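Our preliminary data section would be incomplete without showing what the modeling component actually yields. Below, a chain of 145 amino acids is followed by its predicted structure, encoded as tokens that our downstream tools consume directly.
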Amino acid sequence: MNKSQRTLKDFGQKTVMIIDDDIDISDLFKTFFELEGYRVMSAPDGREGLEMLKNTPDILLPDLIILDYMMPNMNGQEFAFAKGLDSRIENIPVVLVTASGNISSLVHGLEADAYLDKPLNLDALMRVAFNFIHRRHSSQHSFLA
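Predicted structure:
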């Protein structure tokens, strides 16, 4: 099997956290990721997402965060800043999604690893998620050989 043929199952069950105030989008992402074998955590805004992460044991922390930009209570930018101040969670990759239509104006100074416009192509989202998880898994095990 070559690298391009790998699937999520090759890495064991991984976790994605979805932080989005739109319940329909959150449910869609949750269903999509669960069908692909991911464990899913979700929160309706950045504040609740941050609290969930702080209360999650290290072994259950997500491998990737899908983060909406515009949310009440704590938006994506505020969440990304707060996440960066917590050494337990600062290295979890973040994919920032937005419906603003002008993603280039939002990314300046934001701590995100990838940016996607809504409406999302779910296949593209899955490829991005897989690539981050694969890269993270590979780097964690690169010193074991």
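The chain is about 40% helix and 15% strand. Strands lie at 15-19, 39-43, 64-68, 94-98, 114-117. Preliminary results of this kind motivate Aim 1 of the renewal.
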